[in-house]
Amino acid sequence: MTTRTTPRLDGARLLFAVVVLVHLAVLYLPDPPSAGVGLLPYGDLVVHALVFGAVVWTARLARLPVVPIVLLLVAHAGLSEAVQHTLLPGRGGEISDVVADLVGVVIGLVLPLARRTP
Prior knowledge:
By secondary structure, this protein is an all-alpha fold. It has one domain (15-116). The chain contains four helices and no strands. The chain has helices spanning 7-28, 43-61, 66-87, 95-116. Helix 2 (43-61) runs antiparallel to helix 3 (66-87), helix 2 (43-61) crosses helix 4 (95-116) and helix 3 (66-87) runs antiparallel to helix 4. The longest helix has 22 residues, at 7-28.
């Protein structure tokens, strides 16, 4: 059985894939590019919230099953910090980053809903 897609849906799925790759790069590169994060107060936390929120938001755009993705991201929030702390030289795992990750997941869930209400 084949599923019909539209160019818009295909584009949303491609965007989701790119966002997931960026998400993984930000979390697991030994020395990720900072892109001026140090200039912004709590810039690291903002980036954490953005990369987790973007995954959820683009998953919704791509009409992917959100519940499994959210559950995976919630688990990944803690796991990624543990990996950073134990396996990546120069990186550290922090509870505040986990909290920012979870805030990003919530924002990614709520943002599309807020857009629909008049």
